[in-house]
Design goal:
Oligomer: homodimer
Largest interface: A-B, 98 and 98 residues
Number of helices of chain A: 19
Mean pLDDT of chain A: 95
CATH topology of the largest domain in chain A: Butyryl-CoA Dehydrogenase, subunit A, domain 3
Largest sheet of chain A: 8 strands, mixed
Structural class of chain A: alpha+beta
CATH superfamily of the largest domain in chain A: Butyryl-CoA Dehydrogenase, subunit A, domain 3
CATH architecture of the largest domain in chain A: Up-down Bundle
Number of strands of chain A: 12
CATH class of the largest domain in chain A: Mainly Alpha
EC number (chains A, B): 1.3.8.-
Radius of gyration of chain A: 25 Å
Enzyme class (chains A, B): oxidoreductase
Domain Acyl-CoA dehydrogenase/oxidase C-terminal (chains A, B): 299-465
Shape of chain A: globular
Domain Acetyl-CoA dehydrogenase-like C-terminal (chains A, B): 485-602
Family (chains A, B): Belongs to the acyl-CoA dehydrogenase family.
Low-confidence stretches of chain A: 1-8
Number of domains of chain A: 4
Helix content of chain A: 40-55%
Chain lengths: 606, 606
């Protein structure tokens, strides 16, 4: 078996489950037959996962609560002070080669499949979401630069981020423009030397200031003025905290200043900042304005930024999964050891007490958590597998299919875990009873940390608009149809097996049919406003169908295999199909009649 | 109109809504025709509500965040130190006569109807749940003593609590016995003088230690040894922190010591303690053991304690309502003023931005909150009205009916607000976006404070067991049938009106029928274990039916009246019936088939 004492006691994730998903279901070893991943093998993958768990347990988990209690402060000379353990953990991660892992050899990486890299990353977010935030923003920023910036910029900014010397941010929101990027007012003015001078204020910038590395590269959306209003006028710039000389050495201070730290409900260890660009505090090269470097073409900023945003959205989902997962394992361990009450029907008050896992309602709360977190994990790893397909599948049709599926699944990969792994954390508190409400146990912090995930990188509502307004419609609904086909294929294969898989397949097919009809109804509706009014409900209903599909996938893989692990998979699938999936029925009813309750309302009535 | 500038800006509760419920729906003024309440009038009720709002705004709300940031600590000589504002607020409350308000004249009270007293109390919990906790525990303890203790004990302990000089607690749980009272081990031994000596450890004791008054009277469940095992062997004792001499003066220190403070996710301003009774720190009257005084008969402790527990359960529900309500009003105010984005379909990016309340999904989140919090408020005030009926209805049949309805509604009055007003707080955070996740806004604290309410005074699961296992069955289901009759009566009256009320009535009747059939199916099931396995689902389904009924009640009252307020009532009812009530359908399906998913499970599979 794959469990070891350390793994059993860490309660961060289940390695057995990760192995199941990676090897038995997603067949990641098959990737090693492709040239991009040919140096890899099941052994290298397992080594990465072993290392990740060990490092997460030893370096990241121990300061998770301390980071919550002692949040970042602005210290002397305006420098942001973090607890020392953050730097130690980050240094160990970088030294282990994990920051570069999925990058090309040219950048010192090892071309690790994104699927395995994602599985690795889950250990760290489960152990300490806040500390991990600094690392993941840097690698996502580097990914964007590698994809969109010219070679000189990649060398100057991306390479040091991959090496772990620089860090990165994404600067989109502004105080008066949160979800509405069309309204950003930060300006960038072209200079004679081809650089830009950037002026404006950015809000909600995670990891926006700290002293963890030599530099911070801000990826900033700003207007150049010449390319129109709304989102069409927006370009993307790299704005380093310190200018970088042509030889790569650190130059003078750029005019990017910390205007304030936000103090949050959770996720407190990651600085969240208000940043001023070009407010005149510093005068790089003797002139006013923060020096910025255009990435891609003028007016194409949002398209470039979406490279990072899509990655970040799936990262939000995976962060939510890991917090949900560790909360589940902790409440499971508690339920197995905490003695309280007697089995239902036991009349003798002096009979021995039983572990609370014997109580039906505690089991319900555990099965619910398991169904949410393992269903979400499947979705996240499936998406990561699509990223690998996109990069390495031998024929274009397969790469195109992967791109399409990833596109339509991204809002769900962001929102389902953010909603339901948070619900899992809520249940983990409840299983702990009064103890779960105290700060002596981890679960209340997991809840607070996880609450962020419905808000950042596009709120829940924004994901609903994206899914129903764009993703299921683009290219005449091609991506949506591909997804439907994939789900039907799974149902078909489950129908071919006797017993429960066939029963679940029928339940899934019924909802796939409803999803298709609902989507067509909304697409054809003459009343576009009413059709879009319940897009969050649509997001949630489709999320449940997708997760049911991925549970059926797991049931098919587990078919014919009998041990505790596979029995657990079947039990959680059963729970999801019988307790969760049916909630979509009234959501589809509501959607199909284009309910106008929210529209036929005067704000003054509230 | 009844609104004034102070009311409009407090964002604690809606006075207009309280007036609607008290006067237009529950007709509290009718109570003044009964001898018990004959000195009262609409004017005295309104004066109490005016005073309550003012006091809550001026004395309780201002230190709500400070109490969260600076939680109680154990200071010099083991004394618990609270921020000074707590004492000031409590003194003002007592000085205003509110602590005694609903008590008899004999205790310095003004016989305020419980319905009005409950409405008054909501202002304070909305403003500061933690500070209010000290007051409410004292009055609930005094209520118990007045009902069950002899005259001397009432004089010695209850009277000073009503006067605001003493405070009180309820001591049920122990470290190894949380929800399972049958397992408590605290012992009480009869002495020659008729007093008892109490020894044991109590856990999760709210307001268990502080210096707010002269004394703290702990109401303690303990075993006397002679009356059997399980819950039958439990008796109730008053155990004062300081002994009280026969002349009422404060005597020596009793052997009740603070063993520790719990540090919680929220509700931080109320001390939550581990208390040691009779551990030998003090030796009152020169002997070992904490001096305790039996309340009621030996072995009858739980029955007495339920007097306080039932009151506390409804208080938990009303606390949850008030936190949900203030969060709703704050997110509503934010949504009306925060500009972001444009109306759906607006193509011109330079058109003016709109308040976010114009977005359908924000309206959905506001209507959901309104439907939860006003529905819950209706339930709490309805229950309070039943308490008044129980005490003052002219004929026994009416008093009996009130007692029955209150009995069956108590688990729902505790659990629906605890679950759904918490969900409202979650939505209030979401409406605020990133700001809602910061500690600069109130809503994240409301969430954390409110999260307690699903745990204490009987967890959510315990309420489900109580409802399905006991409350709907006792006396051959008489209370349940009375409730069903009341609901059908409302539906019938709504059917008599044209248009929407009749439509909603039909939707409600359909679910009443399902509730009845489900309840019968479960009662008759031969597989008792399976019938009880989903009692939490039953609790939630019945909760939604009850709240739908109370929304229909409001719609009937509002029928024919047209202004913003009544239109808002109709909109929220519409939301609840179309978005919320249908979720019961699959819950009833699950219940009727006695789903065994949670039972047919080996814990090792998880």
């Amino acid at each position: 078996m794959t469990t070891t004492p350390v793994r059993q006691t860490s309660h961060l994730l289940s390695r057995r489950d990760l192995d199941f998903m990676l090897y038995e279901w997603l067949h990641v070893v098959d990737l090693t037959t492709r040239s991009r991943f040919q140096e890899h093998s099941a052994e290298t993958f397992s080594a990465v996962l072993d290392l990740s768990e060990q490092l997460a347990v030893r370096k990241f988990a121990p300061h998770n609560r301390e980071g919550d209690l002692r949040e970042p402060v602005v210290g002397s000379e305006g420098r942001v002070e973090l607890i020392p353990a953050v730097r130690e953990a980050i240094d160990a991660y970088i030294a282990a080669g994990l920051q570069a892992a999925s990058f090309d050899h040219a950048y010192g990486g090892m071309r690790l499949p994104v699927t395995v890299q994602k599985a690795s990353s889950l250990w760290f977010t489960a152990a300490n979401a806040s500390t991990t935030g600094y690392l993941f923003l840097a690698s996502a920023a580097a990914n964007l630069l590698v994809a969109h910036a010219d070679a000189d910029m990649v060398d100057r900014y991306a390479r040091p981020m991959i090496e772990g010397r620089f860090f990165g941010t994404m600067c989109l929101s502004e105080p008066e423009a949160g979800s509405s990027l069309a309204d950003i007012t930060t300006r960038a003015k072209l200079q004679d030397d081809g650089t830009y001078r950037v002026r404006g204020t950015k809000m909600w910038i995670s990891a926006g200031d700290h002293e963890l590395g030599e530099n911070i590269i801000h990826l900033v959306l700003a207007r150049t003025g010449g390319t129109g209003s709304g989102i069409k006028g927006i370009s993307l710039f790299a704005v380093p905290k310190y200018l970088v000389e042509s030889d790569g050495s650190i130059g003078e201070r750029n005019d990017v200043v910390l205007l304030g730290l936000n103090h949050k409900m959770g996720n407190r260890g990651t600085t969240n900042t208000v940043l001023g660009f070009g407010d005149g505090t510093h005068r790089p090269r003797g002139e006013a304005g923060a020096v910025g470097y255009l990435i891609g073409a003028e007016g194409n900023g949002l398209a470039c930024m979406f490279h990072m945003m899509n990655e970040a959205r799936i990262a939000v989902g995976s962060g939510a999964v890991s917090l949900g997962y560790t909360g589940y394992l902790k409440s499971l361990a508690y339920a197995k050891t905490r003695l309280q009450g007697r089995r239902a029907g036991e009349q003798n008050p002096s009979s021995p007490r039983v572990p609370i896992i014997e109580h039906a309602d505690v089991r319900r709360m555990l099965l619910a958590q398991k169904s949410y977190v393992e269903g979400s994990l499947a979705l996240i790893l499936y998406c990561a597998r699509l990223v690998d397909e996109q990069a390495s599948a031998p024929d274009e049709a397969e790469r195109d299919r992967a791109r399409m599926l990833l596109d339509v699944l991204t809002p769900i990969a962001k929102s389902f875990p953010a909603q339901w792994c948070l619900a899992a954390n809520d249940l983990a508190i409840q299983v702990h009873g009064g103890y779960g409400y105290t700060r002596d146990f981890d679960v209340e912090q997991h809840y607070r940390d996880n609450r962020l995930n419905q808000i950042h990188e596009g709120t829940h509502g924004v994901q609903g608009l994206d899914l129903l307004g764009r993703k299921v419609r683009v290219n005449g609904g091609r991506a949506f149809r591909m997804l439907i086909d994939s789900m039907r294929q799974t149902a078909l294969s489950a129908r071919g097996r006797d017993g429960e898989p066939a029963v679940l397949a029928e339940l899934l097919e019924r909802r796939i049919d409803r999803l298709v009809v609902t989507t067509e109804t909304l697409s054809r509706s003459a009343d576009r406003e009413a059709a879009m009014a319940n897009s969050s409900v649509y997001l949630e209903a489709m999320g449940h169908v997708v997760i049911a599909w991925l549970w059926l996938e797991q049931v098919v893989v587990a078919a014919g295999k009998v041990d505790d692990f596979y029995n657990g998979k079947r039990a959680a699938a059963r729970y999801f199909f019988h307790y969760e999936l049916p909630r979509t029925d009234h959501q589809f009813d509501l959607l199909c009649r284009c309910d106008r309750t929210t529209l036929d309302l005067d704000p003054e009535w509230l």
